[in-house]
Amino acid sequence: MNTKGFYVRMRLLQNNTRHYRNADKSNFCSRYFKWILWFSLSFYFFSSFLITNNKPTNSISRNTVSKTKHSRALIEELSLLKSTHNPQDTLKGMKVYVYDLPSKYNTDWLSNERCSSHLFASEVAIHKILMNNNDIRTLDPWEADFFFVPVYVSCNFSTVNGFPAIGHARSLISSAIQLISSELPFWNRSSGSDHVFVASHDFGSCFHTLEDVAVADGVPEVLKNSIILQTFGVKYKHPCQEVENVVIPPYVSPESVRTTLKMSPLNGRRDIFVFFRGKMELHPKNVSGRFYSKQVRTEIWRKYGNDRRFYLQRQRFAGYQSEILRSTFCLCPLGWAPWSPRIVESIVLGCVPVIIADGIRLPFPSSVPWAEISLTVTEKDVARLGDILGDVAATNLTSIQRNLWDPDVRKALLFNDPMVEGDATWQIMVALSEKLDRSHKKSSVFDQ
After folding, report:
1. Which letter does DSSP use for residue 417 in this model?
2. Which of 95, 144, 315, 374 is an S-S bond match for 353, by CB 3.0 to 4.6 Å?
């Protein structure tokens, strides 16, 4: 894919618009045919029922009784047809158009396999899932409620430490916006308010890994009117969420989870009481006046490094998910940012997440009962972790685990491909459907 190809596609797009509109009209008719049929038949049989019941009792023959029973059975069948759940009803018929950008903005980055599997990979997963979904995605931008702009900014891995370097993010996104706004009218007509981006790194739409720099830079002016899907979220005022946003979970590979679960069932033996594997600095460094994890992880290591109830490891281990599967409680302390992939991994592998990140805003609260499946410990109470977890184990641990092992809860935090009702992408689509007041198409209909 190249820039020249993008311009050609934009020209062809205008010519194909009428075709897509006609196709959507056909879909509209078929969508409501079932309801019209149900109403008509129900009205007919209900009228027949009233007429039959108005006859004298002694005039009812066996044949009439048989017909009445048959009618009632048919009415029940039609009622069952009516009550059959249509997932699109939940999404209010919402349609999303995905911009077909030149490959330098997205798929060129996939040459590095990590791009589609690391903790920031939701930007890749959501793009791919939408491209494969014919129910939500529309090929006709004139019929779209929202416009998804697929720019991958988290796949530029540092050659020094292997971490994503996102210094190019602002310029890459600005370039993409310049391209779509110059070739098509949809960005300009709404000032981007119905356009959707993914910012799946530390401080979301501020595009920096260190909070002080992120706060100083703020959300790019060009994005302030758009919708951002971001992993960062807090319950207090913060410059990096001063934009319309949806908090999403960090990416955890569904395939890796399924592979791990083949080793042991969720309710299998858990011989590790408290687990944590990750960076714990013995002598935390002062970086721009801040300490990694606000020294919470350092405190955990100092306090519980020799406690036999705590299995704490500072080295990397590729098979760490198998350790989560063996654990009762999994510590999820903040790093530079409050969110962590450990929260998702703990839940999908049945370990009670112990969230240590003051003020964190968690994804999909209407579908995930966080208070019933996790524990929250304030940063100042880290020294009391042993007592707190001991009390929970002696009282309501069984109840928490029962809620945690609900398959619908686990499903809500994973990006399945193809999308399934209730999973992470589905939850994002539901969240967008609640923002249809930002849709230019919907507002145009209401104005008519």
Report:
1. S
2. 374
